[in-house]
Amino acid sequence: DSVEWEGRSLLKALIKKSALCGERVHILGCEVSEDEFREGFDASVNSRLIYHDVFRDPLNWSQSGEALPGGPLGALQAMCRRTDRGPVTIALDSLSWLLLHLPCPALCQALCALSQQHSRPGGSSPAEPMRVLGLLHEELHGPGPLGALSSLAQAEVILSGTMGQASAHILSRRPRQHPARQTQWFSILP
């Protein structure tokens, strides 16, 4: 997203869709409080959300014991070792916050590990599907981190627009195929 076109609404819509399809949804919340993030979801969606709070005390300064072990990177690594049965969605709110607090290579390695889970721990059977969603404020980052994250993505949605007209540029990548581009325009009502 950008300053002009926020993407959290789109992220929350995708989370809601995953939850309503019966998926467990893990949220690594970095930019807003858990209460603010859950706002607008009904009880059936909220019951499927597992919120990992980095927002409240990201660097464990309070030393209250409530911070995630290993910080945000530890939380991502723990999600790699998930034991949930069934399809799972992991939502990162936001990749920008993570990029500002973690080295880009470490974040990319963690994201790669999440997306390449092909077997359950201790077995050789295929893992249940896992989808990773991330909100990124592109104006905060240079071409290097943006390119690195882009190379990991199967799909990118870039929000933009002018004068009450918004657009979503969608770039999807499928293995062994050329990337497909699509632009959707829609009006913003006052």
From TrEMBL:
GO terms for biological process: tRNA wobble uridine modification. InterPro entries: Elp5 (IPR019519). One of its GO terms (molecular function) is tRNA binding. The keyword Cytoplasm applies. Keywords: Cytoplasm, Nucleus, tRNA processing. Pathway: tRNA modification; 5-methoxycarbonylmethyl-2-thiouridine-tRNA biosynthesis. Belongs to the ELP5 family. This is Elongator complex protein 5. It comes from Mustela putorius furo.
